[in-house]
Amino acid sequence: MDIKAFKESKNPSSARQMACVVAYYLAEIAAGDERKGVVTIGDLEKYFKQARYALPTKLEQLLVACKGAGYFESIARGEYKLTRVGHNLVAHQLPAKGKG
């Protein structure tokens, strides 16, 4: 499954949710060399575009906002990992009931 199909199956309703979808995809679904446990701003830009999801105006702040919301933890400067909260959002709460 590619990121566009995965995004469509999860139907994220915000850039924060989409960032979680990207991180989950890279950690759990992506094949071969594409698979990785951390995400960067560059990853978000690349996969938002591939999924045809609108880029937020302040992409640089998105990972910081996701960390503040509890979806990500900072691993190193500019590198973030999905937390259990973020994992559960994608695995068990998306798509939102009634939107899917």
What can be said about this structure in brief?
53% of the residues lie in helices and 9% in strands. By secondary structure, it is mainly α.
Q: Explain this structure to me?
A:
There is one protein chain. The chain is mainly alpha-helical and 100 residues long. The protein has one domain (3-93): Arc Repressor Mutant, subunit A (Orthogonal Bundle). Helix content is 53%, strand content 9%. The protein has 5 helices and 2 strands. The protein has helices spanning 3-10, 15-29, 41-50, 59-68, 84-93, and strands spanning 72-76, 79-82. A two-stranded antiparallel sheet has the order 1-2.
Please summarize the sheet with the most strands: 2 strands, antiparallel
The gross shape turns out to be: globular
Q: How much β-strand is present in the residues?
A: 5-15%
List the helices and strands in order: HHHHEEH
The share of residues in helices is 40-55%
Structural class by helix and strand composition: mainly alpha
Summed up, the helix count is 5
How far do the termini sit from each other?
18 Å
Write the layout of secondary structure elements.
Blueprint: H1 3-10, H2 15-29, H3 41-50, H4 59-68, E1 72-76, E2 79-82, H5 84-93
Helix pairs in contact: 1-2, 2-3, 2-4, 2-5
What are the key terms here?
100 residues, mainly alpha, Arc Repressor Mutant, subunit A, 5 helices
